[in-house]
Amino acid sequence: MPLASAIPEEVLYEILKLLVQQTSLSQTSVKALPSDIIAAALTCRSWLAVAHPLINQCLQRPFMSSAGLDLLELRRLHDLLLEARHLGLNYGEIIEDIDIIASKLWTRDVRSTSQESGGDKQGFADEVLESIASIMSMAPNIKALFFDFCDTDAFDIMFNDVIRLYSCLGPFCGNVQRLWILMDMSWKAWEYQLDCLLPHLTNLVHVEFLSGTPDIASVRALAQHTGIERAYFHRTVMTNLGDCIAGWPNLLQLHITESYGYNSFGLLNTIGKKCPRLRGFTCGDTSYYRHYTPNSPINYYMAKIVERCPDLTHLDFSNNQRLDDAFLERAIRTGRALRRINISKCTNIRAAPGGMWASVREPWPRLEYLNIYACEKISREFVERVVPVCSKLARIVLPNHLEADAGIIKVLETQGFREHAEGWERVVGSGMAEDG
């Protein structure tokens, strides 16, 4: 039998790569943690050199592809990381992201294994958490936490379970910058209880919430993280969202989509006053904006955000039914830094001929992308005015009635635009933009 070190490197690499593929592709086996590739790397120096790039590949998110959190495999991974550290190999430093799917802690995998150990389901879940924490204790570079509580089989997760999860993992999350939480909308009475976790996340800059209802204590804890730069709320019930944002003076990106339950006017007023560094704002397709009322204050508050945030470059208010020309007239005058504007499906923006918007001499001087798809009431005069003047405009997406307008097509072609799969795109180097 040949020595392990005698295997050609290119052959060995292909063999070891199978271990990584088995880890990433496993869907049913609970033996999906990156333990085997680490064990192979510790065989000898030559194997270590060949396996190193593969370890980097699969150890950054060690629990991402795991079909089940098997206690024995978790302990094995911990022991291998510890053995490697004793040899001077700090593989724990590679770990950057921690993915926790709640159903793997408290449902099928726990049930099957706890039955074999006398039915102590909760005790087994605690041991799993402790094993994960022991692995995290050797991982000083963890940058992101991903918690998935969205599983119809996991409705029996109780308040104390989540507290135990946060308290067990929290002490090892001092360098975490990103927090991502997914929940099921049907858990209307369920709360995040983030006040138990957030005090540990002293370097947090990025938060994402998908569904669910953050409780008041969690909102207050979030507001204490003044370093937040990016926040995403999707299908989230946020009655106190403004209280969070008021504590985030460094906010650069804010996305609110399909969310409801907040004071819209108060929220927008808070964003305009408290987030002067905002660069990107998405706020569309919410229940508050689906019913049109002429001269709605929403136009004033939306326009104030554009005016008060001088660095705002990306604006997405798609499917916002309450916006009209009152917003457009202010935004076209004050949005000097805007580069991307999406007001698609804002069906009450008309850009009426002769309106105040038309008197602006140099609208949106930095604009590169404009989406007015499905704005079926918008005037052809708007496009005739904006396209020649906005010399940096590279792409525009039109509503159907203007796509069929021969005069508009001529304007676009004169300015160097050609029809594209996604709207009209200006041909680079056409030189036509200078004619405007």
Assembly classification: single chain
CATH topology of one domain: Leucine-rich repeat, LRR (right-handed beta-alpha superhelix)
* C-alpha geometry: globular
> Terminal Cα separation, in Å?
78 Å
How many strands appear in the DSSP assignment? 13
CATH class category of one domain: Alpha Beta
Helices and strands, in N-to-C order?
Answer: HHHHEHHHEHEEHEHEHEHEHEEHEHHEE
Fraction in helix: 25-40%
Low-pLDDT stretches: 25-31, 107-116, 431-436
Q: Rounded to an integer, what's the Rg over CA atoms?
A: 27 Å
Q: Please count the helical segments.
A: 16
Q: Please describe the biggest sheet, giving its number of strands, its sense, and whether it closes into a barrel.
A: 13 strands, mixed
Overall pLDDT, averaged?
A: 85
Summing up helix and strand content along with how strands pair, one would put the structural category as alpha/beta
Q: In order across it, which strands form the biggest sheet?
A: 1-2-3-4-5-6-7-8-9-10-11-13-12
Strand content: 5-15%
Query: Which CATH architecture of one domain is right?
Result: Alpha-Beta Horseshoe
